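ERR on first pass: missing label on line 2. Operator R.T. fixed the label and resubmitted. Corrected input:
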Amino acid sequence: MGAHAAAHAGGHDSPPELRHHFVDLPAQREASTLGMWAFLVTEVLFFGGMFTAYVIYRATYRTAFEGASNLLDIKLGAFNTAVLIMSSLTMALAVWASSLGRKNLIILFLILTILLGGIFLGVKVIEYKQKFEHHEVPGPHFVVPLNEKTHQPLPPQSEMFFSLYFCMTGLHALHMIIGIGLLTWLIVKARRGAFTTRYNTPVDMVGLYWHFVDVVWIFLFPLLYLLGRHTL
Amino acid sequence: MPFVPPQASSFAPHVDALYGFMIAVTAFFSILIGTLVVVFAIKYHRKSPDEVATEIHESAVLEIAWTIIPVGIVLVMFYWGAQVYFRITRPPADAIEIYVTGKQWMWKIQHADGHREMNELHVPVDRPIRLTMASEDVIHSFFVPAFRFKRDVVPGRFSTAWFEATEPGKYHLFCAEFCGTRHSGMIGWVYVMTPPEYQAWLSGGVAGESLAAAGAKRFVEHACNTCHGDQPGARGPSLNGIFGKPVRLQGGGTVLVDEAYIRDSIVNPHGKLVEGYPPIMPTFQGLISEEGLLQLTAYIKSLSPAAAPGAVTPMPAAAAAERKPAKP
Amino acid sequence: MSATAPDETPRVAERPNYLNTGYGVKSWLLTIDHKRIAILYLIGVTFFFAIGGLYAAAIRLELLTPAGDVFQSETYNKLFTTHGVMMVFFFMIPGIPGVLGNFLIPLMIGAKDVAFPRLNLLSWYLYIIGGLLALWATVHGGVDTGWTFYTPYSTVYSNGWVVVTGVGVFISGFSSILTGLNFLVTLHTMRAPGMGWTRMPLFCWSMYATAIIQILGTPVIAITLLLLVAERVFHLGVFDPAQGGDPVLFQHLFWFYSHPAVYIMILPAMGVISELVTAFARKPIFGYKFIAASSVAIATLSFLVWGHHMFVSGQSVYAGLVFSILSFMVGVPSAIKVFNWTATLYKGSVSYQTPLLYAIGFIGLFTFGGLTGLMLAALGLDIHVHDTYFIVAHFHYIMVGGTIMAYLGGLHYWWPKISGRLYPEYWSRVSAWVIFIGFNLTFFPQFIVGYLGMPRRYHAYPEEFQVLNVMSTAGASILGIGYVIPLVYFAWSMRYGKRAADNPWGATGLEWETPSPPPTENFAVTPTVTGRPYDYLTGREEAAAG
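pass 2 clean. output:
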């Protein structure tokens, strides 16, 4: 009993961010970091399954996939890529600011990151709307699109391209939305002064997640928009 | 009670021999370990509450030995299994062709000469039989335990496998891949017949139109002949004599013209284009049934009497010069 | 480390412990104590095991006669599907990790909890939600695709609740991922001072290897199920040949997880057996480093063999050869473990308590079942037995004769620590024998009837297979009784069992240096580890010599 009480008495001196089952803050940070990296590995495999399906079908139905790929708006895609890369910069700046405990800067950079993420999602809405209008959404209303140059219908497996397009970019967008939610939560915590020179782990971890979501897009963009762009 | 099905095919004894070997190894090691564990438990039973066990020192030699020996044993098993597998997957060239369509929940069998059967397969004894199989709906599996024969029938592709029956008789046919409500009802019989019996069976019954003849009709029906004619300047490659030969593909590489390539060319023509021809063939995905695809394949095969292997079909130079550009 | 008397007087047992700090539903449903979460998992897995077991009983009832005369075909198809889904995803995968892993890992490494206690609770909720969704689907008409969900049957043709079941399995997959993440980080970062990797208990090593598989493999089934559901709802065509999709691609994606998944089911069991053998031979385990290394080797190789489920689907011959030889290789580390366990018993001081009975049963049945697995790795042989009862017999030997026996052995071994009570030794030995006999009678005949050609998932079968099926059903009845008995006496022991001492078995391990049951914070003072693991003989030799 005595030892237990002693531990408790000592506990009042320990930092409020330290969870009771960790020895000290560095141990807690090490665990959180390892946990987040391991989680990102699961995300690689999660997206990886779909990337595998896409690569296999692209090789099998090259003409259909190349033709459909050329129908994507490369300008919007490139713009979005730039937006996301910028958002990774603002996120990294938010992490830097949080390591210094500079509350206003943290909040500023978090808000900028959210804004850039929002712009990305907005552009995606525009793209999806265009697909809807051109009857490029798989399902009962799908109309086989025409090859841009020859105006002949693409092979019917072009519908498969759009199925994978929507699944892959949709899953990515979902991860962005979750990321924006996490960033909002960080802003709430930052306003309460949670992040100091001693403790900024949550910002660091969300930063890792955000960068990962960015990297997924960096793979998606060439695979979906760029490959085979000039062969027709 | 028998422990193995009848051995009614040329590879059944080989499969059973491998099985026998693996049973022996399994029995040996199971009995060895089981006995050791029980004997040790009894012999070293704790006799008093304070009894102290004897330390035995770790031995890297022992660990390595009982790693290497199992590796050696499994390599033998792998090699033997692979040998049996090669026997199972390499049909001889003179096999009789039979076409099978699986659909929920029946097997439709068509002999090349047009004989049709439902849930029954009559074959002559001591002749290699090659089944080309298609599914009209879900995955099925053609399983004849007495032949040790099994092959999944996957929709969207042709599946081929072979056997040679060695014992006249009547043997179970099962569907071995779950395919829905009446999966366990998708069963039938394989009848292996002596040559006189088989002749009698062939001449009886109504032989329908042969598969190749049906395929010839479809070839015209779907206007294949408008491009795949034999005249110079034809828009598509001639199909005479190409079956079983390699052709050169656009972008390099060659492919052997077999059933799978023919089927792929019909439903996904731009996947493997023959060199020297423009990519204008429309796809027939969803427009021709599996049975129709089998018929067309049989027809195209019939355009090639047994061809000499190795020759690559060249593109006629004159035809290339006269080729018209593709219409925009 | 010396054995104390097994039972203690009541006054000592009123100490505060994790069970009596706080009563009430909220204190349980909002707990972040890993030990309480383990109990929550125990309740969950027992519940889903019971459901899976009832469906097994229904299957065996139907198979008493060759005709399909008890259930309609579609109902029967739902029976084996539900049995598989419940058992695989809601009992076997979460079972030992959720119950024994959660309870023991922090105790074994001298930690106060796992690395992420709140995520641990979340993982339990995800498991329960997933399970309840699957249960909802079952109650409202069920799903009939087989637990393997092969397309295009599951995406286009089936009339069952495929989407709801798929979503339920998807959600519980995240439970598995979170558990894996938690264990990985806990074992890396929270071991007590002095506990290097080579002083860690072998159960922890096997949980570490399991966590690697959970982290790397589960996301792939998650995305596969997501695509399956999307295909069924939106008619996408990714796996539908009518739209250019490939059913075999589904099989590749499905088995890429589902093969390593079977190692999620067996590795924790092997870890338990390592602990049982050394404790009940009261001797250091033979070949500690090799057993630890073999766990990691199994986890690594497990990702390279998935194609052996698809030898007849249409893979190329070369793919078949590669998967065959790798499948043979993955059996070798398991053999190494069996040899090391056997050597541990040699010159030991062997005590015949129930956990040891289960351990011996495991070693025999796992060896036999594993060797039949080699038969399946042999290409020429697998062609004949694939999709027959031979396969069913093989995997039940490993999963039931292996994992479930190890689970029960571990549950008996650690029960005094978990509950602070002793179970009745007589009834526990009786049920161990009933289970062993019932199990073999149920599944051995299935090897024979499978080689004879009886396909699996068959509602009705040719008459010549009846005798073997009757034997199998008789065995299943006995096995069922064997499983009910522990349920009864474990529950009974929680109220009426003799109170347990802190270390009733005289075993080594940090978990035995805490009270039975342990206090919430596990250790008042974090222990420092100095000796080697399973240090049964140091000091005793000197005592015996001196």
